[in-house]
User: Which sequence fits this backbone?
């Protein structure tokens, strides 16, 4: 509240000083700034009670250019109350309530000019003209909606047909799926049977292979320990079986960052919290840290750290953007990510085993099992493909294409709009993108989210969300404002708020004669 | 190997957070002269006044000051200097020390002073025992000790208030001919010049220093001082800190990206004026120098100052502050202010550099800015947004993107094809437009400004005399050399309506980036060896023919806004008052422009620091100050935004602004409850706009800070000396903005207990007797503001779309009674935009309340203004014994008035006196 609270605290006696009541020329006498409907509340023969009921004042205090009521109801025709309203009749056009602060401020706010009766400002009464324009506009809109509604009917028919078609497709796919699943099960049984035979036959080969693997591993380990011990002994110049800091400093290889100095962090890197290492720790821990350095020294390893750091940094920076770019991408994309690993593993395994030479009988069993696996994989893939199609159709069927499916045919259709710098593309119910005319990648401005026209007219606004993130800011998003038009097209693209795009889109699908926007201009007229 | 890389990435991620990159800016050690002089100890020589050369003539004492070799008996004279000490009006003295015969003239700052200072009488009282004693005609004395030179200034009470050179830090490095070494007859080096004398480097930048070393320095002591203040602009506390254990305060106008809090680093502005204050008296010094300057402070009361040092210097006395100024070039030129009250020293400084003229009224209202309102439709929708949400606003601002690819004085032909129409749409509702004009000029063939400046040689030159090229918003840019009067004139003419098409008297100007900011320059500014125009009286050859940027740096922005100001006057035949906002600031800036605290951040600390920063600027003459409401970088959440609007509504310059990469934040883009709070904050501002306007009128006359520290009004109250989270507006309102998140109460200090002062909460009229600190409950909608008992404040309760539309509206006069039941205030009224007030077309009225009567009388009865405003109501708070009747007397007319009393809080309301404000009136009360 701007009013100091004192005004809320006065309940007291008032005296009559003078009168400042004006009556507008009209059949019903009423104070200035009062609408016809509220006129009965202002009776010159009675004291006036503020609408909020808190205070009763002499009627002469109404419109006396002094605010007495907390709710501003005593000054409908002056600017005295900050929270009051002035009613303009605007004969010939629409009536209007304006804040009291616009009364006598030198700006003509009412088309009948009644708000400027004492400011010295002469306002031209433009209500007739504005009313005429408004009626003409209403007429134009009505005609547009009428013409558009025929096209809309066609869209509704097509939309319904498309839905029916999808429903039929779905039915067919469900049928196909049942068959495919059956086939897959059969193939799976066959595969299992043949695989168990194969396993039995391969057991001997596998055991031999395992033994060979273990032997090699042990050999490697011994070699490594030996190498470690050799180096330990080399650095342990006083042969006390413990490597100390001093000994380390003598050995230049520990200079991790190659700056010629051994910083304490570098030592900590190798030693942990300890001041020295014994033989055992050296072999188990330190050596593995140290060895790459030696390799660098010997030229076996290229010191690439600078490089790697930079790349790492870039990758980190880019990661944020990439993440968001992928989220909510096309449904097809995620379908491709379905797990296919177990079969592939088998295939690889089988191939690896091909390296072995089996006896003829075993080889036959392996071949049979391989063939069974392939057939099973194919059957599984078929099931997955059918399922993906089902999901896609189900998702489309779940989409809200409007009360009568009038927007259904627009799904997947794309429209472009060009301005000075960019080409914008709206793919309805899919996504919005922006591409610079100077080249560069397409930037996602949002993926289909929801209808956002609110309770009044839900289907007036589409919202596409979760586009690519802005630097230092939110994810890009786009609202598409839909209006009735005989042609379907993108009318304009703006960015009223940073990273929040606004598109104007016209289509006959929006030419619903019963919608609020169609009714708007022809009503509330005097 | 990978793990090392990861470590490094983690470290980078940490350092990549918000904050200043300190590496871009010099420390004292990296600034050659600061390092050289900060450690200077006069071991082998001293500055001595030659008593045989003393001459007192008029208001000036002139004498030769020599440096003498103290290492030998004969005290050989090493160098000759000329000293002038002048007595000026209003307790002010000036001391200038230059070389007697410099190799080339040394730079004297040109624009800071508002004309020649007015002389006072000066009399030599005695000359004995190596001491001179002088007095001016006002009873101030000066005692000069000859060897070593020391100058003591005594105020009217006879107390030593300021001492010059008590710590022997006076240095004027003589200009020399370049010689790498000076040999004696046998070829031995007697003197080898220090490295850096003829050139120094910082990062990849080399400064050629063609004149060699030319630094100056002097120390000041303030006996009996508890604190010193001033030398804006820094993000530190208002009361300055001891610098011995860290960096000195730096004065060097710089564009510091993401500047940090609690810092003595230099930022955009530099005003080298310093004040001392203690219970006994105040004093001040103005270091009249536009070169890079560093200031060291030693406050002997600080626990950080070692006690042995305290004993050595002060003899154990703790109340004393020393300050020492070091500048890279120029002469020693110091003004000394002897107070004795804080308001005296503030006035003494402002009267030298000129008080801010009366600003156009709209500029004190609310400003809406963003980098950037993208096109005409955007401007229109923001303009309409204020009306749709019933929030008052006076000005929409356009940042750099409105131009045709950063070419100033042009419009983007696609986004702003019809500026005149856009502006007319704003002015139809009483609103204005401010457009940015930065000083850098895009180097683009075909751009008239660039072509003219190139052809006519109007750009600042590089060290070799070619047009200097730097990098700024437009890319490759050059910078007009405003020091050349011809260039300034040309630049002024660019502002004519003809040359800047689409503009009108309702378009005002924002001069940003005028430190100047040069993205690829040393410390993001212009190289010091760039060349500026110099009048030809010293010859056209070599170093005598030009000034270097190092001499004039802190003054550059002042020359820029001066040319803009002149242009805005000329474009409308000097009829309308220009409004200019500048980012860089120097002494004298207030004569032309308002200043804001630059590119801050949407963080609570930046909201809080806006108070000490503006207090400091206000003490240095720049009252018209504010911060970017909401914070420039980052996004303020609802609570921070609310508190910032509430704080901004009570700071002189009230503008919301935001960075191009941040989320939009016009007041209606928050939740409705927050929008309502922001609306309320703006309405509070508009209700008090005539109070603000009156304050700025009075400021234009008396020069006193509009936004003032508590100790200015309560100089004996020691608790107030370090308070910088609350302040006074004039001497009527006390404001304690809430700058902390999530608090339910704040501490407010209510001064004036000695005089039984009452402070009235402006929302409830509840009276709080002054008694030091008070814990005060706050809600999110509460802004703790108190009206002093004894003060009358005028309001306009009918807040409209813009201030212009409120011109004729009636007043609510709020009378807060003091303990004696009296009160007084003032009101200034004029047309709000022209200079007609200089032709006596204004009202400056005094409002006085006594139990018997209230009067509205004109201070200057030759002046009048035909206002249509009238008195809507008079609210009298703190009334113990209400009158029975009230009668208005205006001219011949007498009217009985209605009154209502609210006993709960002792408030009497006089209902609708309807007295015209165009004529004096009187209301007589009877009991």
Assistant:
């Amino acid at each position: 509240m701007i009013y100091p609270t004192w005004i809320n605290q006065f309940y007291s006696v008032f005296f009559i000083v003078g009168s400042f009541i004006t009556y507008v020329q009209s059949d019903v006498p009423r104070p200035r700034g009062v609408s016809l409907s509220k006129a009965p509340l202002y009776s010159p023969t009675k004291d006036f009670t503020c609408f909020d009921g808190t205070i009763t004042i002499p009627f002469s205090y109404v419109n006396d250019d002094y605010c007495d009521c907390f709710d501003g109801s005593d000054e409908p025709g002056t600017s005295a109350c900050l929270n009051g309203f002035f009613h303009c009749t605007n004969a010939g056009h629409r009536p209007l309530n304006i804040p009291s602060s616009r009364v006598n401020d030198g700006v003509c706010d009412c088309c009948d000019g009644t708000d400027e009766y004492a400011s010295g400002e002469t306002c031209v009464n433009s209500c007739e003209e504005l009313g005429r324009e408004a009626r003409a506009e209403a007429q134009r809109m009505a005609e547009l909606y009428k013409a558009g509604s025929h096209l809309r009917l066609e869209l509704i028919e097509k939309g319904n047909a498309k839905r029916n078609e999808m429903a039929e497709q779905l039915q067919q796919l469900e049928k196909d799926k049942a068959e495919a699943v059956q086939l897959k099960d059969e193939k799976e049984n066959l595969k299992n049977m043949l695989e168990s035979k194969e396993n039995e036959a391969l057991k001997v080969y596998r055991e031999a292979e395992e033994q060979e693997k273990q032997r090699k591993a042990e050999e490697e380990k011994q070699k490594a320990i030996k190498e470690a011990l050799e180096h330990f002994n080399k650095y342990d110049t006083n042969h006390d079986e413990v490597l100390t800091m001093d000994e380390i400093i003598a050995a230049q290889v520990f200079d991790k960052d190659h700056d010629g100095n051994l910083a304490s962090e570098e030592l900590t890197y190798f030693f942990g919290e300890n001041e020295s290492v014994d033989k055992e720790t050296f072999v188990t821990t330190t050596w593995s840290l140290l060895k790459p350095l030696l390799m660098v020294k010997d030229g076996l390893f290229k010191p690439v750290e600078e490089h790697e750091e930079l790349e790492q940094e870039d990758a980190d920076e880019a990661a944020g953007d990439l993440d968001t770019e992928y989220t909510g991408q096309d449904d097809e994309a995620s379908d491709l990510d379905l797990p296919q690993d177990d079969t592939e593993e088998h295939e690889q395994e089988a191939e690896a085993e091909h390296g072995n030479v089996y006896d003829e009988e075993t080889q036959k069993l392996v071949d049979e099992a391989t063939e069974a696996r392939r057939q099973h994989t194919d059957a599984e893939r078929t099931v997955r493909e059918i399922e993906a199609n089902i999901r896609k159709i189900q998702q489309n069927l779940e989409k809200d294409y409007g009360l009568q499916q009038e927007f259904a045919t627009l799904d997947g259709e794309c429209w472009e709009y060009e301005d000075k710098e960019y080409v914008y593309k709206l793919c309805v119910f899919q996504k919005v993108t922006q591409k610079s005319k100077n080249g560069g990648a397409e930037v996602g401005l949002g993926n289909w989210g929801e209808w956002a026209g609110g309770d009044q007219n839900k289907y007036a606004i589409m919202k596409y969300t979760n586009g690519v993130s802005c630097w230092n800011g939110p994810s890009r998003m786009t609202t598409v404002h839909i209006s009735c038009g005989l042609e379907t097209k993108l009318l304009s693209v703006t960015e009223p708020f940073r990273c929040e795009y606004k598109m104007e889109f016209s289509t006959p699908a929006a030419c619903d004669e019963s919608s609020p926007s169609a009714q708007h201009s022809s009503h509330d007229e005097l | 190997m990978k793990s090392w890389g990861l470590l490094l990435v983690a470290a980078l991620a940490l350092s990549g957070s918000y904050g200043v990159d300190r590496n871009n800016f010099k420390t004292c050690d990296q600034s050659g002269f600061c390092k050289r002089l900060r450690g200077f100890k006069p071991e082998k020589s001293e500055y001595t006044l030659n008593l045989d050369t003393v001459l007192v003539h008029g208001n000036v004492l002139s004498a030769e000051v020599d440096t003498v070799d103290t290492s030998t008996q004969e005290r050989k004279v090493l160098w000759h200097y000329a000293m002038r000490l002048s007595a000026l009006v209003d307790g002010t003295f000036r001391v200038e020390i230059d070389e007697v015969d410099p190799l080339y003239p040394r730079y004297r700052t040109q624009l800071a002073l508002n004309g020649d200072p007015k002389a006072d009488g000066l009399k030599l009282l005695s000359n004995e025992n190596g001491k001179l004693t002088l007095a001016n005609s006002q009873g101030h004395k000066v005692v000069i000790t000859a060897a070593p030179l020391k100058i003591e200034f005594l105020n009217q009470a006879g107390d030593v208030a300021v001492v010059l050179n008590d710590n022997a830090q006076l240095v004027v490095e003589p200009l020399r001919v370049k010689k790498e070494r000076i040999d004696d007859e046998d070829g031995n080096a007697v003197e080898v010049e220090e490295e850096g004398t003829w050139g120094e480097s910082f990062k990849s930048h080399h400064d050629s220093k063609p004149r060699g070393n030319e630094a100056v320095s002097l120390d000041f002591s303030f006996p009996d001082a508890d604190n010193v203040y001033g030398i804006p602009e820094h993000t530190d506390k208002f009361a300055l800190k001891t610098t011995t254990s860290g960096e000195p305060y730096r004065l060097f106008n710089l564009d510091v990206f993401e500047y940090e809090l609690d810092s003595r680093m230099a930022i955009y502005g530099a005003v080298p004026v310093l004040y001392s204050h203690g219970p006994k008296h105040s004093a001040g010094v103005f270091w009249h120098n536009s070169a890079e300057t560093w200031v060291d402070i030693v406050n002997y009361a600080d626990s950080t100052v070692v006690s042995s040092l305290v004993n050595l210097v002060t003899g154990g006395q703790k109340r004393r502050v020393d300050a020492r100024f070091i500048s890279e070039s120029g002469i020693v030129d110091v003004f000394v202010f002897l107070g004795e009250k804080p308001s005296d020293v503030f006035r003494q400084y402002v009267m030298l550099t000129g008080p801010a003229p009366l600003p156009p009224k709209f500029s004190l209202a609310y400003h809406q800015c963003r980098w950037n309102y993208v096109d005409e439709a955007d401007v229109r929708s923001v303009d309409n947004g204020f009306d749709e949400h019933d929030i008052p606003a006076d000005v929409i601002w356009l940042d750099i993107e409105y131009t045709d690819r950063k070419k100033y004085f042009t419009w983007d032909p696609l986004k702003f094809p019809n500026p005149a129409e856009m502006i007319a749409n704003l002015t139809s509702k009483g609103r204005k437009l401010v457009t940015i004009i930065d000083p850098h000029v895009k180097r683009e063939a075909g751009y008239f400004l660039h072509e003219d400046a190139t052809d006519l040689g109007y750009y600042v030159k590089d060290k070799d005399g070619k047009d200097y090229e730097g990098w700024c918003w437009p890319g490759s840019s050059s910078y007009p050399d405003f020091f050349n009067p011809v260039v300034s004139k040309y630049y002024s003419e660019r502002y004519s309506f003809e040359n800047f098409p689409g503009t009108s008297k309702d378009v005002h100007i924002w001069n940003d980036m005028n430190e100047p900011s040069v993205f690829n320059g040393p410390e993001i500014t212009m190289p010091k060896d760039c060349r500026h125009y110099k009048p030809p009286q010293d010859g056209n050859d070599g170093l005598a023919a030009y000034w270097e940027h190092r001499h004039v740096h802190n003054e550059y922005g002042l020359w820029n806004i001066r040319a803009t100001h002149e242009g805005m006057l000329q474009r409308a035949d000097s009829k309308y008052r220009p409004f200019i906002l500048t980012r860089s600031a120097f002494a004298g800036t207030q004569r032309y422009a308002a200043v804001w605290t630059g590119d801050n951040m949407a963080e609570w600390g930046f909201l809080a620091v806006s108070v000490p920063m503006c207090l400091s600027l206000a003490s240095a003459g720049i009252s018209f100050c504010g911060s970017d409401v909401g914070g420039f970088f980052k996004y303020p959440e609802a609570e921070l935004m609310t508190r910032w609007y509430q704080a901004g509504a009570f700071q002189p310059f009230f503008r919301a602004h935001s960075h191009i990469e941040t989320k939009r934040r016009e007041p209606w883009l928050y939740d409705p409850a927050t929008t309502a709070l922001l609306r309320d904050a703006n309405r509070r501002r508009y209700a008090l706009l005539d109070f603000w306007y009156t304050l700025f009128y009075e400021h234009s006359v008396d020069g006193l800070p509009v936004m003032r520290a508590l100790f200015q009004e309560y100089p004996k109250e020691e608790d107030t000396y370090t308070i910088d989270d609350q302040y006074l507006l004039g001497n009527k309102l006390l404001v304690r903005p809430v700058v902390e998140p999530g608090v339910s109460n704040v501490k407010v200090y209510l001064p004036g207990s000695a005089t039984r002062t009452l402070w009235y909460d402006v929302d409830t009229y509840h009276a709080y007797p002054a008694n030091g600190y008070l814990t005060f409950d706050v809600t999110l909608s509460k802004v703790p503001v108190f009206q002093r008992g004894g003060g009358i404040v005028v309001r306009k309760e009918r807040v409209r779309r813009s201030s212009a539309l409120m011109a004729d509206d009636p007043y609510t006069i709020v009378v807060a009674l003091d303990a004696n039941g009296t009160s007084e205030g003032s009101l200034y009224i004029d047309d709000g935009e022209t200079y007609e007030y200089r032709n006596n077309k204004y009202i400056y009225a005094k409002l006085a309340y006594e139990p018997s009567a209230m009067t509205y009388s004109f201070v200057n009865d030759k002046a009048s203004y035909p206002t249509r405003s009238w008195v809507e109501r008079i609210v009298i708070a703190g009334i113990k014994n209400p009158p029975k009747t009230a009668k208005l007397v205006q001219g011949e007319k007498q009217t009985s008035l209605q009154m209502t009393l609210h006993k709960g809080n002792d408030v009497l309301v006089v209902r609708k006196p309807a007295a015209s404000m165009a004529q004096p009136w009187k209301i007589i009360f009877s009991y």
Notes: Chain A touches chain B through 48 residues (CB under 8 Å). The longest helix of chain A spans residues 127-235. Confidence is low (pLDDT under 50) at residues 1-26, 303-353, 521-526 of chain A.
